[in-house]
Amino acid sequence: MKSLLIALNIAVLLVTPVAAFGQQSLISDPEIYEKKHFQEQCSKANFSDGFVIRQDINNDGLVDAVVNEGELTCDGEKGPQCNDDGCTYNFYLQVAEGGYFMIATAQIYGYDFVKRFGNMVLAMKMHPRFCDRPDADKTKEPCIVTARVRGTKFVTISKK
Description:
Layout: H1 2-20, H2 30-41, E1 45-47, E2 52-55, E3 64-68, E4 72-74, E5 77-78, E6 87-94, E7 100-108, E8 110-116, E9 119-126, E10 143-150, E11 153-159
Keywords: Signal
């Protein structure tokens, strides 16, 4: 009986984390969600036109959203969370059932959406250390990490 109780406790411990980290809930619109967050964080929040870019980033025909926190002015400070590694970008995918979920957050200088081998991919400009060039001048030689979104994951194609 005691070994059965121990086995059941172990089973519960193994299953509980999976249930706790289950699927995240969908949000209706990342722009509304992010703006509301910053309006609660800042006394005065201003958002430029580049704060949210809507485009299909995973080649599924649905319009996704990319939020650039560098396009936020919070209490007079532009891009308050930007640093030497760039600004925070949040990538949201739209699902066919309606709604969005966040797929990734990245600290980058920016990105280009380009066609490679017939698919649209993200060419993200990052600090050179991410391409094993820690002493490179980030303004002259940023690291370019090219990634494709497959399903719900970023897949790195190349780093240079």
